[in-house]
Amino acid sequence: MKIIAVLLFLAPLALPAPADKDFYSVGSAASPETKSRFAMLDDVRILANGLLQLGHGLKDFVHKTKGQINDIFQKLYIFDRSFYELSLQTSEIKEEEEQLRQTTARLQINNEEIKNLSQEMNLKIEDLIQNKIQLQEQVWGLEDKVTKLAISQPSVQETKEISSLKAFVEQQDNDIKQLLRIVEDQHEQLDRQHNQIMELEDKLNHIELLELLENSFLEEQQEAEPIPSAVHRPTAGTYRADGSAADCTALYHTGVQTSGVYTIQPNGSEAFNVYCETKFGTSWTVIQKRVDGSLDFNQTWDAYTNGFGDLNEEFWLGLKKIYSITQQGNYLLRIELQDWRGNRRHIEYSFSLGGPSTNFTLQLARTSGSIPNALPEHARLRFSIGDTELFTLPRLTCPCFSSGGWWHSECEETNLNGNYVTPRSRGRLDRGKGLYWKPKKGRYYLLKSTKIMIHPTDLKSFD
């Protein structure tokens, strides 16, 4: 409306001035006032038409704007509705998860009760079996008597005794058969309970995988990685007079200061290749490395003794080679771990390694690290392999492990030579066979890569 009022006000001013002069100069019959009035009416009509077109344009613009606003409101409504439905689904999933956990707990309790009942039944069965053995011995004695009676006519008293014993034995057999049927029913019930628990564990497995990924090293206290205090530059030579290097540290101080595969020859040993990693101003001898699971660590005792794999990729150096290096002096053991989010942690031990006669027994004492300890300290850890070596000792008798070889003292969870497990795995997780770092009073750390290295603590021992 304001625009229309302004246009009406400006219309008279927009009329051309020379037109008035023409009306006065031409001697027409009409008066100047009449001609001026007609000219203003024409201008008003033109202005009205322009305003009418402007009004139509504004009306179309208003309609388009209303349509756009309606579309925006419709999209906002759809978004609100979708967000509400997503919230409902999230609430339902949380409720189902809680119910599933409660059901699992109840089934586990029932399973324990059934196991206890089954143990009691087994004890009763053993007692019945002992009774049956005794009865069989008595029956055999009676058979001997019957054989003797076949020769001589039995007395009436002996006949009654035989009949009563036969009836007693038959009754015992019937009781044993009935108990066996009860035990079979109990075993079937146990199998059903076990299958239910397995199904529930499979359903919870996806949630456990997410928790394992969330259990990254980020939640641990960040700690700067210092240069190990036991590693220092030598004050004397670190290689022997014959020019052969005892380990990677000795090679480093002869001028070989690049990571890679080199040949060393420890005291009293044949020469062999190792991977040397340069860091902290020195060089470490790598004895184990896992990167992507391309190498199967489920190997035999001979393989773990002599070594296997590619030194430039994944490998195990070999117990004999590790032992030949560590017999030259005191060494530091460093374990470097990486989780599936790329976070890295390490731990270092002073250690001693026994020879083949002790099954390469390992003893550890932690010196530093940025992750909780997961290996027993000051204990004799015997190197054992899993179920792959069926006839060659030593084998690990603990049922928790059935893959790889590692230093074990009990059924602990840490085994850096176990099967390679990825977060994308499906099915029931078998933690005892995976690549985990598990402190005794802590959670699992699912690992993507591992590296184990050794370094001398007394460089003078190689003079």
Description:
There is one protein chain. This protein has 463 residues and is an alpha+beta fold. 46% of the residues lie in helices and 16% in strands. It has seven helices and twelve strands. Strands 1, 2, 3, 4, 5, 6, 7, 8, 11 and 12 form a ten-stranded antiparallel β-sheet that branches. It has a two-stranded antiparallel ribbon with strand order 9-10. A hairpin with a 5-residue loop joins strand 4 and strand 5. The radius of gyration is 46 Å and the shape is flat.
- Shape call: flat
Give the helix/strand class: alpha+beta
User: Ends: how far apart?
Assistant: 104 Å
Largest sheet: 10 strands, antiparallel
Which stretches are poorly predicted, pLDDT < 50 over at least 5 residues? 13-28, 221-239, 388-396, 459-463
Search tags:
single chain, 463 residues, alpha+beta, 10-stranded antiparallel sheet, two-stranded antiparallel ribbon, 7 helices, 46% helix, flat, disordered C terminus
Indicate the topology.
Elements: H1 2-10, H2 18-25, H3 32-151, H4 156-214, H5 248-252, E1 260-264, E2 272-279, E3 282-290, H6 301-306, E4 308-309, E5 315-316, H7 319-326, E6 331-339, E7 344-353, E8 362-369, E9 382-385, E10 405-408, E11 436-437, E12 445-456
Antiparallel strand pairs: 1-2, 2-3, 3-5, 3-12, 4-5, 6-7, 6-12, 7-8, 9-10, 11-12
Helix pairs in contact: 3-4
Summarize the structure.
The chain is an alpha+beta fold. The chain is built from 7 helices and 12 strands.
